[in-house]
Amino acid sequence: MASRGGPRAAGTDGSDFQHRERVASHYQMSVTLKSEIKKLIYTHVVIWLLLLAQMCVAHFKLLPHDQVAMPYQWEYPYLLSILPSLLGLLSFPRNNISYLVLSMISTGLFSVAPLIYGAMEMFPMAQQLYRHGKAYRFIFGFSAVSVMYLVVVVAAQVHGWQLYYSKKLLDSWFTSTQEKKKK
């Protein structure tokens, strides 16, 4: 059209290039999905840190057991759930498909499976609380089973959305890979 500081072509205001400035949709989707997954990973890290803090406080007896109960068994394997999140973050800079796939598989193994086990482990105590109003474990005056079920529900949603967005991101990356192979 024109040089950087030179004259413009006659009959143009310089805005007729915008139709050529579009970003391919799979690249736009990749950026958007990476952003959403990062938000979910940061939310997961907050949940993970809260569980880690609860475990440290209980094991090191920093507070009495009537304020912070000992952790349930499902919380120990859930601590490994930080690994899939790190793999997911490592996959983003170079669109590494293998890291993203490993992240998705390990999310199921280290994140979702302990949450399912935790829901089953705490169910009898939740049933007793609901039927008889008796709770034997507490976290800052609240029933530990109620607090931990809330954590399980929130974490399950975070990991579910993380898996969903990861699958869509994987599809987006495969689309861009297929287009590169066609060229």
UniProtKB/TrEMBL annotation:
Keyword field contains 4Fe-4S: no
Membrane topology: Multi-pass membrane protein
InterPro entries cross-referenced by the UniProt entry: Jagunal
Keywords annotated in UniProt: Endoplasmic reticulum, Membrane, Transmembrane, Transmembrane helix
A Pfam family annotated for this UniProt entry: Jagunal
Localization (cell): Endoplasmic reticulum membrane
Biological process per Gene Ontology, one example term: endoplasmic reticulum organization
One GO CC term, this protein: endoplasmic reticulum membrane
Transmembrane intervals: 40-62, 99-118, 138-158
Family, as annotated: Belongs to the jagunal family.
PANTHER family found in the cross-reference section: PROTEIN JAGUNAL HOMOLOG 1 (PTHR20955:SF1)
Protein name: Protein jagunal homolog 1
Protein's organism: Atrichornis clamosus
